[in-house]
């Protein structure tokens, strides 16, 4: 009925990968972290690291994008066992959507309960500035509008239900925790919240597209995260996600600005330290508050 749709992404395939990883490390992560473009430094915050190159992990895709190292790092953050993807996969790399989201199911089978995702995104909200950090409260999954949803294909009830709810995709307590922690750390001036819009990429948006997405209610636009969130929620993990506003989407025909990946990586470098501190402090507090 769904030719090829589940080939290589079945429960058994995910279990093989998870069991292989569990056999190589004593760390049993309850928090899974995904690093966005230029934000891989988060993985370096982990102590007692056991790291794997994606190419050595059975059934794992390879990173092809500059700024995505392609390593899965196990370790602890202030004593809390974590696993961190230093590099994620995107639709535009040519992988089927089930493949780019496969790591979420492997996280689940490793024992992860809470997933924290970061990404680089273009700002659509005119109040946002480059360097702002947006707590994602919701998303517009544009590939899903045309049927490119990671849950397409036979449903395996061992992961989750056929028709999962997404109105509670982004955990509200974790959003509040991020706000609280951000304020305490003195990040209030650049901490925002908003709606993230996923496109397929790799071309950046035209002016008309950016204007349309803004009118539709998006505050930031990017090329990832939404599909991972859908799969993470399908299998019952709690989700928190952040966008670093690395550039302003061009919305004015008189503008000389041109979106480019170098600017994205540069802004990532400039904000990396604060982003890492925000996430690591949150992880510590999650433990303290029994969040995960
Ligand atoms: O992995 P993320 O979503 O952070 O990567 C963004 C989207 C594109 O891959 C790239 C564009 O510069 O950064
Ligand atoms: O402006 C953008 N558009 C889409 N994806 C992005 N990732 C970083 N910046 C952008």
UniProtKB/TrEMBL annotation:
<dbReference type="InterPro" id="IPR011268">
    <property type="entry name" value="Purine_phosphorylase"/>
</dbReference>
<comment type="function">
    <text>Catalyzes the phosphorolytic breakdown of the N-glycosidic bond in the beta-(deoxy)ribonucleoside molecules, with the formation of the corresponding free purine bases and pentose-1-phosphate. Preferentially acts on 6-oxopurine nucleosides including inosine and guanosine.</text>
</comment>
<feature type="domain" description="Nucleoside phosphorylase">
    <location>
        <begin position="30"/>
        <end position="283"/>
    </location>
</feature>
<comment type="similarity">
    <text>Belongs to the PNP/MTAP phosphorylase family.</text>
</comment>
<comment type="pathway">
    <text>Purine metabolism; purine nucleoside salvage.</text>
</comment>
<dbReference type="GO" id="GO:0005737">
    <property type="term" value="C:cytoplasm"/>
</dbReference>
<comment type="function">
    <text>The purine nucleoside phosphorylases catalyze the phosphorolytic breakdown of the N-glycosidic bond in the beta-(deoxy)ribonucleoside molecules, with the formation of the corresponding free purine bases and pentose-1-phosphate.</text>
</comment>
<dbReference type="Pfam" id="PF01048">
    <property type="entry name" value="PNP_UDP_1"/>
</dbReference>
<dbReference type="GO" id="GO:0004731">
    <property type="term" value="F:purine-nucleoside phosphorylase activity"/>
</dbReference>
<protein>
    <recommendedName>
        <fullName>Purine nucleoside phosphorylase</fullName>
        <ecNumber>2.4.2.1</ecNumber>
    </recommendedName>
</protein>
<keyword id="KW-0660">Purine salvage</keyword>
<keyword id="KW-0808">Transferase</keyword>
<keyword id="KW-0328">Glycosyltransferase</keyword>
<dbReference type="InterPro" id="IPR000845">
    <property type="entry name" value="Nucleoside_phosphorylase_d"/>
</dbReference>
<dbReference type="InterPro" id="IPR011270">
    <property type="entry name" value="Pur_Nuc_Pase_Ino/Guo-sp"/>
</dbReference>
<dbReference type="GO" id="GO:0006166">
    <property type="term" value="P:purine ribonucleoside salvage"/>
</dbReference>
């Amino acid at each position: 009925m769904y030719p090829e749709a589940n080939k290589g992404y079945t429960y058994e395939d995910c279990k093989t990968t998870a069991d292989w990883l569990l056999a190589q490390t004593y760390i049993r992560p309850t928090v899974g972290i995904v690093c966005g473009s230029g934000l891989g430094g988060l993985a370096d915050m982990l102590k007692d690291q056991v790291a794997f190159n994606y190419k050595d992990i059975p059934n794992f895709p390879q990173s092809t994008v500059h700024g995505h190292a392609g390593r899965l790092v196990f370790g602890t953050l202030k004593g809390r066992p974590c696993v961190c993807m230093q590099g994620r996969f995107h639709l535009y790399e040519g992988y089927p959507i089930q493949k780019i989201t496969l790591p979420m199911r492997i996280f689940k089978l490793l024992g992860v309960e809470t997933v924290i995702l970061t990404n680089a995104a273009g700002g659509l909200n005119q109040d946002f500035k480059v360097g702002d950090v947006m707590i994602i409260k919701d998303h517009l999954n544009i590939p899903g509008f045309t049927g490119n949803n990671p849950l397409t294909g036979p449903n395996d009830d061992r992961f989750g239900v056929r028709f999962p709810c997404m109105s509670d995709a982004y955990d509200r307590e974790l959003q509040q925790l991020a706000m609280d922690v951000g304020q305490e750390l003195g990040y209030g001036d650049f901490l925002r919240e908003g709606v993230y819009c996923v496109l397929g990429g790799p071309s950046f948006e035209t002016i008309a597209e950016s204007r349309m997405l803004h009118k539709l209610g998006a505050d930031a636009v990017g090329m990832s995260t939404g599909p991972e969130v859908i799969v993470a929620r399908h299998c019952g993990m709690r989700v928190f996600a952040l966008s670093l506003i690395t550039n302003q989407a061009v919305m004015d025909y008189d503008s000389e600005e041109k979106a480019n990946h170098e600017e994205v990586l540069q802004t990532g470098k400039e904000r990396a330290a604060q982003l890492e501190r925000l996430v690591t402090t949150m992880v510590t507090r999650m433990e303290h508050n029994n969040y995960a």
